[in-house]
Amino acid sequence: MNIFIAGLSFNINDAELANLFEEYGQVNSARVITDRNTRRSKGYGFVEMDDDEAAAKAIAELNGVEYAGRTIAVSEARPQEERPQRREFRHDRRY
To answer: Which CATH number do you get for residue 71?
Structure first.
C-alpha cells in the first residue's frame, strides 16, 4: 500500500520518515518530496508498505499526531491525476 503523509517538518529526511513507519511493519520505500530547484522539502512524502494490514494500522495510529513539532495527516495515497501539459510562454512569439 502506498501511504501519503502531509504536514511534515521541512527538516525530515527519507530515513527519518521510514523510521517512523517501521514500527508498524516492513517499509519498502520512504520518500520526502523536494523542490527540484532548491532541493528543500515540500512538507509531504510517501511511504510504501507491502503489508496492507500494517499500513492501515499505521494510517489509523499516525494520522493527526504530532511529529517533529508538526501535526501530520496520513492517508492512503490516491493515484496521481493526469495534469494538462503546461504551455511554454515565449516572449519572442509573434501573434
So the answer is: 3.30.70.330
- For the whole prediction, is pTM greater than 0.70? yes
Instruction: Quote the CA–CA distance of 44 and 75 in Å, as a whole number.
Output: 12
For 53-80, what is the mean pLDDT? Answer: 95
Distance in Å from the first CA to the final CA of the chain: 49
Sort residue 39 into left (φ over 0), alpha (ψ -120 to 50) or beta. left
Kindly give, in sequence order, each residue whose CB lies less than 8 Å from that of residue 68, ignoring residues fewer than 6 positions away. 8, 9, 11, 12, 16
Which residues form the domain of 67? 2-76
83 in a structural domain? no
pLDDT of 24 higher than 60: yes
List, for residues 46-65, the tens digit of each pLDDT value: 999 999 999 999 999 999 99
